[in-house]
Amino acid sequence: MRMPKQSLWTRRAVLRLGWAGIIASAVLTVQPLMRYLSSKEDRLKSPLVIYNSPLAENSGWQSAAAARVWVKRDALGVMAMVATCTHLGCEVNYHADKKEWICPCHASVYDEEGRPVSGPAPRALARVAVDLKPNGSLLINTSKQVGMDTRA
Ligand code: FES
User: pLDDT (tens digit, 9 = 90+) per residue, 59-80?
Assistant: First the structure.
């Protein structure tokens, strides 16, 4: 009598192979995601930002490129604000036509001066220290928060 041929693929071997595939897929998915989330690409290398362009009085907020820092001059002096939403940290966009800041993530709205008007944002946009140099350039220290009334 002839015996049935036994398969090399036992149920246990198939399950092991399945688990190995699941673990490999998880590693291949999670590793790039963790690398992306921990990227320091969009973080400032230094908290100091220099703004060299002329800043006319009452010209509205001007972007100090690549640092989420905006500057403005009014009758009392120069101020700087960081356009990072106080809810979860998205970059807020300035809408000069409406004179307000709007967060694209969860729709928080801030008024012209960065005070929250609606949405989940708990606080005003951060004002940071500005030093007005004799040559007219601005040295902005994004690591030093100041009050809304502070001017250089
Ligand atoms: S991160 Fe801006 S409203 Fe949530």
Answer: 899 999 767 999 999 999 999 9
